[in-house]
Design brief:
The chain has 1 helix and 15 strands. The protein is mainly β and about 190 residues long.
Length: about 190
């Protein structure tokens, strides 16, 4: 007897990926789930990129900041997002350099908080970030596609991008020309 085909539990593509950014100017503000999804795009026209993935879950953020000798610099992260039924941990994660070695901070959201669960593109806060220029940021997220055909346009248009490419943007969701967060050299940015 030939067994029947077993069920397929999930058809979505899930990818855990670390993205790196270099902060070109001091930043103190919120990073939204929309910003996280706008980091990896697919260019469908020269001006309208779409998010490659439909959902994102924050795993870990790592920051390094080296300041001038004899001065101190601080980097801070707070997972402060709120939504009905789910909150951030609101715990301040902070590290300060003393001019001899870099400030180093590695943290992630607590289990069962807003940022620790998959979220769709929205302007809800994932975390608040405070860092000086020159900070190197590694962001580890789980990304998930949608098998039902839902597509989400990036919050900002592009100019003259090559059609059909995977493209990257800064952590703030802005186009490469105005973003305070640059992906590493060598990747296609828009």
């Amino acid at each position: 007897m030939i067994p029947r085909p077993g069920p397929i539990q999930s058809y979505e593509i899930v990818r855990s990926k670390t993205l790196r950014f270099i902060c070109s100017a001091a930043f103190n503000g919120n990073i939204t789930f929309q910003n996280l999804l706008d980091c990896v795009l697919i260019t469908t026209t020269a001006t309208v990129p779409y998010d490659l993935f439909y959902m994102v879950r924050m795993k870990k953020i790592t920051l390094w900041c080296l300041n001038a000798l004899g001065t101190a610099e601080t980097v801070q992260v707070v997972f402060d997002g709120t939504s009905a039924g789910s909150q951030g941990d609101r715990q301040l994660h902070s590290a300060t350099s003393m001019g001899i070695e870099p400030a180093f901070l590695a943290c992630g959201p607590r289990k069962n908080t807003l940022a620790a669960d998959f979220q769709i593109s929205s302007n809800s806060n994932c975390f608040n970030l405070n860092c000086p220029a020159g900070t190197v940021i590694d962001l580890l997220c789980d990304y998930k596609s949608d098998s039902l055909g839902n597509a989400v346009a990036a919050q900002n248009v592009s100019v003259g991008s090559d059609v059909g490419c995977i493209a990257y943007r800064g952590l703030d969701g802005l186009a490469q020309a105005t973003s305070k967060f640059s992906p590493p050299n060598g990747v296609y940015t828009i």
